[in-house]
Amino acid sequence: MNREQIISELKALLGTQQKLKVDINAINDSTRLDQMGFDSISILDFMYEVESKFNTRIEVADLVRMEVVRDLIDHLHGKAAR
Amino acid sequence: MSPLRRLYYLLEYAAATSLLGILAVVPLRFALVLAEVISRVAFLLMFERRGNAIDNVLRSGLTDSPREARRIAFESFRNFVAMVAEANAARRLITESNWRKHVTLNLSAEVEKLLADPKQGVILASAHFGNWEVVGRAASMLKPLTAIYRPFNNPYLDRVAHAGRTGGNLRLISKFDANPMRFAQTLARGEVLGIMMDQYAGRHGVPVQFFGRKAWTTKTVALLHLTTRCPLILVFALRTAPLQYEVNVVGPIQHDRTGNRDQDVFTITQKLTREIENVVRAHPEQYMWGHRRWKQPGSRPKRDATQ
Q1: Closest-CA residue in chain B for A50?
Q2: Which among B182, B223, B257 has the least Cβ separation from residue A45?
């Protein structure tokens, strides 16, 4: 899966999140994860869905290092490439 | 904030700090006598809480006798006030060097190993049973602990409560803190993340059975476990005598994902709630019955059962 496909899938998942404050179409690589309107539960919900969708596992140490959407894409892209 | 509300909060703050100040300096025996008086007065005057507590005991099916329900509700009030008095005294009386004289820890070898591993984050769930303040303090003696708490509506009181409940390895973070990653950050640091999970969680919760009735319960514990895969333990501190506690631990609970998130969340939350129920059944007088555990989303406040 390439980066464009990953971001497209992520946007589709984000579209299912009801609490988001940002316009899905305005999300780009540098959108901060903590500025998207997630609360402590919805971020967990979202990460669960990301792991299921991409059939991957995000360790908690990796999760807390992610600051912007690019970090998440890099992580998923890196896993997909392996 | 309106001037009237501010005045009310300041009066509440003055009363609480005066009382806590007295409790902090007098000998424990005297503090407990004072706590006994306060609990009797509170049980008499706080008719809505009292009504909720009696009603909840009856609804739990633990007894069908209103007299026995009233006794359990009163004991619950006594336990709560004694807990506040003892938690206040514990700050000066229970130290890093003597805490094992006050707290008997019943841990499995597996849990001991988890708590001894500085890199392993642990999710600690608990309930309003026995002395839950001691749960946090005892666990923080073994491993740094951050507890999620709901701030008081009264900001002055909240500042005092926050300052009094933290220190050493024990920190608090508000459930309303804006950083969505804060729970994961605590676990990533290899600390314990403490969460109370037995209060009404509203429509964002999951409806599990508690004493055979639907109780809307927070999903956070289950979701944290499923997402971070950190081990999950359920901890209770049974009060056995003044400033003496027996800390019992259920778990570690490990639930592997089935692919159905909602079902996984339900299964974990129900399992933990069943364990809470078992402990409450064994010691109903040490449970905080005053909150409306079986409230349904959208329901209106219920009339006082004692009226």
Answers
A1: B227
A2: B223
Q: Is B35:B82 a contact under the CB 8 Å cutoff?
A: yes
Which tokens hold the place of A16? 């299912």
Q: Looking at the predicted structure, is the pLDDT value of residue B245 above 60? A: yes
Chain A nearest-CA residue for B225: A44
pLDDT on residue B305: 40
Q: Which of B98, B94, B101, B91 is nearest to B167 (CA)?
A: B91
Q: Which two tokens stand for residue B67?
A: 């007299």
DSSP track, B81-93: HHHHHHHHHHHHH
| CA distances in angstroms from B21 to B8, B36, B79, B88, B206, listed in the order given | 20, 17, 20, 9, 40
pLDDT digit string, tens, across residues B100-143: 888 898 889 999 999 999 999 999 999 999 988 877 877 788 88
Pick the residue from chain A with its C-alpha nearest to B260.
A52
- Beta-carbon pairs below 8 A across chains A and B: 58
Distance CA A32, CA B254 (A): 32
Reduced to 3 states (helix: H, G, I; strand: E, B; else coil), residue B171 is strand
pLDDT tens profile B150-192: 888 888 888 877 776 766 788 888 877 767 788 888 999 999 9
Q: What is the pTM of this model?
A: 0.88
Helix, strand, or coil (residue A42): helix
Interface confidence, given as ipTM, is 0.82
Round to whole Å and give the CA distance between B265 and B269.
6
CB-closest option in A34, A49, A52 to B181? A34
Touching check for A13 and chain B: CB below 8 Å? Answer: no
> What pLDDT digit, counting tens, does each position of B216-242 carry?
999 989 999 998 899 999 999 999 999
Contact B83, B287 (CB under 8 A): no
Residue B122 sits at the vertex; the CA angle it makes with B119 and B126, to the nearest 5 degrees, is 160
Residues for chain A: how many in total? 82
Give the β-pairing of B122-130 and B232-241: parallel
**Residue B202 region, left (φ>0) first, then alpha (ψ -120 to 50), else beta?**
left
Rounded-to-integer distance, Cα A8 and Cα A28, Å: 11
- Whether the per-residue pLDDT at B303 is higher than 50: the answer is no
Average pLDDT over residues A3-32: 80
